[in-house]
Write a structure and sequence with these properties.
The protein has helices at 2-71, 74-124. It is mainly α.
């Protein structure tokens, strides 16, 4: 009887050990999945940002030449565009604490939670 109890304890111990190993393996795979997802998101967002910045840069140069053609002066065309951007920068700087930063914070939190929530639903099969 005592030997049966020892054997049962050994079996239970082996099952607990297997369970712990499987849980560790799942944790490793889950970590790899999240790191891969984060990396892919970072790469695509960086590429998109670079494309948007290049489009903005070339659009600005095009707009500068357009204004230069309208005013018949490169100085007035590009100077006027520069003053416009300085005005936009001043307005953004004045409203960043009250309007822009709270909106960006809320957007970021919503995006993060939405991504986490969608990832959890996909993993659970919902």
């Amino acid at each position: 009887m005592f030997e049966d109890k020892i054997r049962e304890a050994e079996i239970i111990f082996e099952e607990i050990k297997k369970n712990a190993e499987l849980r560790l393996e799942v944790l490793k795979l889950d970590t790899v999945h999240h790191v891969a997802k984060l990396s892919a998101n970072l790469i695509t967002n960086t590429f998109t940002l670079i494309c948007v910045l290049l489009a903005f840069l070339f659009g600005t140069v095009t707009l500068g030449f357009f204004f230069s053609d309208l005013f018949s002066s490169f100085a007035l065309g590009f100077g006027g565009l520069t003053l416009f951007y300085i005005l936009v920068a001043i307005i953004v700087n004045m409203t960043k604490n009250s309007l822009i930063e709270p909106g960006l914070i809320n957007f970021t939190i919503r995006k993060f939670l939405s991504t986490q929530h969608n990832g959890d639903n996909k993993e659970q099969g919902h």
